[in-house]
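Task card 7
Instruction: Convert sequence to structure tokens.
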Amino acid sequence: MTNTEAVPYVEHLGQSRQYWRDIILGVNDGLVSMFLLVAAVVGGGLDSRQVLLTGIGGAIAGAISMGVGEYIATKSQEEVFEREIALEREHLEHHRDRELSELKDLFRDTGLRGPILDDVVAAYDADDDALMSIMMALEFGVIDDERRNPWVAMAASGGLFLVGSLPSVLPFLLGAEPRDGLLWAAGLAGVALFFVGAAKTYATRGNWLSSGTENLLLGGFGAVASYLIGIWYGSIGA
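Output:
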């Protein structure tokens, strides 16, 4: 049996890889933060209409905050990259020898030694586009296919926050009483938390059961704490 037969070839994630952080963070933050918010206000004694208003307001505010924050952060990072890339082009034009020496050091850090190191650097020196690409990748960790679009990042974070908010808001939107609604929200959010934790192993290729359980437990601990704080605040108010 050959190695090809023993170990099947698994494709990389491809173009979605750079947005997995936004995807997981957006939906998970919506699930956790909104259920904690609902648990707190139900514990504090709010009626169903007040809980619904709080949930809708929290969902909209959270989605806008997540989306705008991710847009600004991603756009700022891209602007930093653009400035660094422009500076690198200037260095290659006016200080090429110094940059080639730096490239040789970078390749040496990867394990290249001897004549092959000089040959590789000479090959890149013969092609300006290739030289620029390898300097971007090794010096700044910037690869064109891996760069993030601020609008996509915003849509992923903000939009999926709203999706993650639904399990906690939906029971009250359907008119459930506070305690019943909280139980339904707990069940729906719990299932969703487990699913998100398990689903991320599509990218990490880890154990879906342990990942899903971890995500569920972390959200559950936060919900219990939030609910108890709500009860405590409600007792003070009373």
